[in-house]
What does this fold into?
Amino acid sequence: MNLREQVDLDNLPKHIAVIMDGNGRWAKQRGGLRIFGHQNAIKAVRDTVEGAAELGVEYLTLYAFSTENWKRPAGEVTALMQLLVSTIRKETATLNKNNIRLKTIGNTASLPGACQRELQEAMDMTKDNTRMTLVLALSYSGRWDITQAMQRLAEDVGQHKVEAGAINETAISQYLSTAGMPDPELLIRTSGEQRISNFLLWQLAYTELYITELLWPDFRKEHLYQAIVAYQRRERRFGKTSEQLIK
Ligand code: IPE
Ligand code: IPE
Ligand code: MG
It folds into this structure.
């Protein structure tokens, strides 16, 4: 049985989040510059998006640029932004063809104007698509997200739109940039690093973590299937005992 057939379509994660890591190391192994790795990451993105949509995953969130990544050398940041613009421009037609909606999370106002315009156009063009939502996390960090949520929530409390006593987990979730989306059931991180790197801190509270040594530019559909199959073999107890889960 091939890997895709091993995926149980009745127990699919609705939301998969990915920390796409290892582009620089991939390039270094080949004697190339870091940007060569980023360029080769596009194939992995394309294949993963296609694979997730074909299976019936509803949300795929890709960590593409973190708040902390602004601290990288200026040349790398500029090259990443240019790559983002050219990729969005090239791929929007395919997203439409595959009925995929594009959305972003993060402090996108801090991105260069050309990026913001390209993203806005792509989001407008794909807004009615219903098969899967592709969420790009750009200039994103979990602490940024929680901070912006708290600021807006505090404003609404100040204006008596929300009672302080009525703030609960559901209310907080609605102020996060992922409002309306289910929390990811599965987080994939490539390149072997065992950390969250300030990704979806609130939303990952009970997410299953899957870490592979594979570097992101080498990631393909088969590896996505592998991660989902591993996820489906786990027992998600949410604090209960094993016995309580068997009914
Ligand atoms: C991930 O690959 C891409 C971004 C963070 C933008 P890296 O660029 O972090 O690659 P490594 O971790 O240095 O190999
Ligand atoms: C996390 O990767 C951010 C993205 C994949 C966009 P990093 O390479 O920036 O993370 P650290 O520095 O290893 O934690
Ligand atoms: Mg990295």
About this structure: Residues 74-97 form the longest helix (24 residues). The radius of gyration is 19 Å. The chain has one domain: 3-140+184-231. The pocket of magnesium ion (ligand 3) is lined by residues 21 (CB under 6 Å).
